[in-house]
Amino acid sequence: MTDMSIKKIHFTHLPEGQLCQKYLASGKIVSIGLWKQEEPRENKQPTEEDYETVGYVVDGCAELHIEGQVILLERGSCWVVPKWTHYQYKILEPFTAIYRYLIYGSKL
Phi and psi of 4, rounded to 5°? Predict the structure, then answer.
């Protein structure tokens, strides 16, 4: 049987999340998203997820506050947030990043 989950999504039709992120593509288990030119602001709300997140900074600068550490995220930086880790972001200058995460409730 052919996998019918294969799809192409044009940038002009991307759904937007609660944190102004754009969902680039979602499969059955993983998703990839985009923060595009996020403006500087106070820290996003602290959170803890039941999945791992990885990302890459395309442009701009932000701080990742994670488990008592502050990690500077700037152009070319990659990051990993392990699952069940308390973290939050503080956008310092217009920030564009691509990130990948598991879809809620998915098991690898």
Answer: -90, 5
* pTM score of the predicted model: 0.74
- pLDDT tens for residues 67-94? 999 999 999 999 999 989 999 999 999 9
Domain ranges (residues) in the chain: 17-102
Q: How far is residue 41's CA from residue 103's CA, in Å, rounded to a whole number?
A: 27
Nearest by Cα to 62 from 46, 38, 83:
38
Instruction: Give yes or no for a contact between 100 and 54, defined as CB atoms under 8 angstroms apart.
Output: yes
Confirm if 85 and 79 have CB atoms less than 8 A apart: no
**What is d(CA 19, CA 82) in angstroms, rounded to the nearest whole number?**
20
* Fold of the domain built from segment(s) 17-102: Jelly Rolls (2.60.120)
Closest CA to 61 of 94, 35, 87, 34: 94
User: In the numeric block, which tokens belong to residue 84?
Assistant: 């069940």
pLDDT tens-digit map of 36-48: 888 887 766 788 8
